Amino acid sequence: MSETTIKLLAAFEALPKEEKLSFLREAFRRLPPLDSGALNDEEVARAGDEIAAMLEREENDSKAR
User: Fold this and answer.
1) Residue 19 CB-half CA count within 13 A
2) Bridge partner list, 34
3) Per-residue DSSP letters for 1-65?
4) Do 16 and 27 meet the contact criterion of CB atoms below 8 Å apart?
5) Cα separations (Å) of 40 from 24, 36, 43, 48, 55?
6) Rounded to 5°, angle at Cα 7 from 10 and 61
7) Running DSSP on this structure, what letter comes out for residue 22?
């Protein structure tokens, strides 16, 4: 992994939850088309929802510790 990628990930981790979600939604929109075709808005929204749920689980897990 490059130094730039490591810095980007560290900056991402420092963001508040809502900013992480906003960033990820925008990042997904910018992904190049995959072999299965371009992501439509519904797929991007679903992926964002799944990531939001994952982040919430992680946050709840860290609060429980």
Assistant:
1) 6
2) 37
3) --HHHHHHHHHHHHS-HHHHHHHHHHHHHHSPPBTTBPPPHHHHHHHHHHHHHHHHHHHHHHHH-
4) no
5) 15, 11, 5, 12, 23
6) 15
7) H
Handedness of CA 29, 31, 33, 37 (dihedral sign): negative
Q: What is the pLDDT of residues 8-60, one digit of tens each?
A: 999 999 999 999 999 999 998 898 876 776 778 898 899 999 999 999 998 88
Predicted TM-score (pTM) of this structure? 0.50
Specify which residues 37 forms β-bridges with: 34
The enclosing H or E element of 36 equals none
Q: Which residues contact 49 (CB under 8 A, 6 or more apart)?
A: none
Q: Are 30 and 10 in contact (CB under 8 A)?
A: no
